[in-house]
What does this fold into?
Amino acid sequence: MMLRRILLTIGLSTLAGPAVFAQAAAEPPKLYTGSFGGGVAITSGNTDTKNFNLALNVVRDPKTKNVIKTTAAYLRGTNANVTNLDRNVFNLRDEYTVSGRLFVFGQIDYLRDNFKEVIFLWSPAGGVGYKLVDSDRTKFEVDGGDGGIMERNPGIPSRKSGSVLVSESFRHKISSTATITEAGSTISKTQNFSDYLTNISAGLTTSVAKKLELKFEFVDNFKNEPPSALVKKNDTAFLTSLIMKF
It folds into this structure.
């Protein structure tokens, strides 16, 4: 009887061992994920240009209802040693899932753009959003809300106003290694609804290694009422970046 029990215990341990080991070896879900990268373009000869961009994306997801997202980008360019592009953008966003695909959010946006004569533009806001599509392959969400804007331009005192905002984002995996993305947002001042800022981006990302990606992106920045008649409303950029995921 004692020998039978010993043999039964050994057998059960042998069967359970691989499963237990697999559980122990499995990595716990990451609290922080994101990416960092940039790109450089240099020409010489008849034209002498230098352009580079840096981008950071961080997501804090404890696998509960609350997710915090941070994005930041810096673009700078010169033509014949004269600066013709100098822009910073930053967004910090906190999302809380209310039920199913419905969520509420609070965020703050920052913009500095020398060539749009924006010394700074701060816009804190909050609102509600809905995930129209939410699968591993495709994600599409829309949201809207209100808040405030504080803007400073050269020679003009800081101005404050209420704001309304709408935005949407789309992401679709076209293959196991390639993803297309698109996003758009508009922030309008309540004191003058024709004074609004719109940002649109569209991109293609493809994997070149396990944690390395190549990204092609088109960015359009439109300010309907620039501070000066000498400032153009629309700025576009085509960016190529090497992205490292973490």
Summary: The first strand starts at residue 32 and ends at 43. The radius of gyration is 24 Å.
